[in-house]
Amino acid sequence: MLTTIGLFAAGWLAWTLGEYVLHRFAMHALKGRGITSREHLNHHADRDSILEKWPLAWMGVLIVGTVWALLTTPAVGAGWVFGYGFYDLHHWHAHRRPPRNRYQRWLRRHHFHHHFGHPRDNMGVTWPVWDLVFGTYVRPGVVRLPRRMAMVWLLDESGAVRPEFAATYQVAGRAPGSEDLSEQDRVDAFANRPPALV
Known about the structure:
Number of helices: 7
Largest sheet: 2 strands, parallel
Radius of gyration: 18 Å
Structural class: mainly alpha
Distance between the termini: 55 Å
Mean pLDDT: 92
Strand content: under 5%
Number of domains: 1
Low-confidence stretches: none
Strand order of the largest sheet: 1-2
Number of strands: 2
Shape: globular
Helix content: 55-70%
Order of helices and strands: HHHHHHEEH
């Protein structure tokens, strides 16, 4: 039983490295060349673009998990697939739901520092260990983001940052829909630049 748990954990750990490598090299370094990079950078450019609706990602994860299971043990393959599911769920929640615990607060701050300030840093979405190993970890301070791209849970009805998040987040610029900067946001995302705070 302990061996199975250890192998499952090894598969999950392998996923976290895969998450880092895919995010850094297949999504950002390619600057829109290829479907994976293009879809990911569109996610950076669009307020409501959530990649987890993309069935090809799950198909790829299941294929790799099956290969892991056949080459090693089913526990390693299951750990890989579980790791992606953990990432998928937490990434979706980060964009759509307010944090409810310390880990979720950390993940949002870490991830949105990447989205809105430093797209070449903090590549590990769910765990920073590979960022620390490969020198891409940046401890985020206050996360500044354009109001037009703010997550739905961050702002109140008037467009201000909710009081419980005011020490961690600041918004600048106009509300969504007040000025169409979508083409500039796309150009910035595909160049691995943060969106303009206007």
